[in-house]
Amino acid sequence: MTATANLTETARPLPFWRRPRVMDRVEQAAIVVLWIFLVQRVEVSGNPYAWLLLVSETAVAVFALIRRPTDKLSMDLGDWLLAITATCAGLLIVPGVTLIPAIAPLGLALAILGNLVQAWAKLVLRRSFGVAPANRGIKISGPYRFVRHPMYAGYALVHLGVMILMFMPINAVIYAIGWWAQILRILAEERLLSQDPAYAEYMTKVRWRLIPGVF
């Protein structure tokens, strides 16, 4: 399947439930429901750092609700499953225990730094934020001058901090699955976005996707 085939601008009409705006609403509803359950887990947690889980995940929910609709949205089922898996990972985390209190300050610093980075990226995106691969407008300012996906880089820092502050084996499994999906999601996003000449030019100027010198 070519990247062009992933777009909704195809000759065949899509069924109602597969239309971009309908899928957008379904995705938004799922995020809100999972966020509510996360709030409930944080409320009953005895971990004093549990509130950190809500900072970045609440931002995901808010920006998902106010984002700009688009028809330039991938309708490939695989792309949607990857995006939902990557997004839901953070919403499924269970506040665990701080196994090594001595390094808790490191975990706290990583979580705070990661939240600042992802918040900066979201403020640049504003209503262009989305979950499934889509072109809601090309942004190349702010943290996007350094890596092509700074919001995901911020998530990575938050997740490392969470593993230090709230370790549980199930959380390690959730994050492992989530980041497997996240990497594939990044590649899917760039297949779609690279069809835009502005983004194709941007890719030549900003080489690294997530971690400078690595990926």
TrEMBL record:
GO terms for biological process: methylation. One of its GO terms (cellular component) is membrane. It is found in: Membrane. Pfam families: ICMT. The chain crosses the membrane at residues 48-66, 103-121, 155-181. InterPro entries: ICMT_MeTrfase (IPR007269). GO terms for molecular function: protein C-terminal S-isoprenylcysteine carboxyl O-methyltransferase activity. Keywords: Membrane, Methyltransferase, Transferase, Transmembrane, Transmembrane helix. It is a multi-pass membrane protein. Its main location: membrane. This is Isoprenylcysteine carboxylmethyltransferase family protein. The lineage of its organism: Bacteria, Pseudomonadati, Pseudomonadota, Alphaproteobacteria, Sphingomonadales.
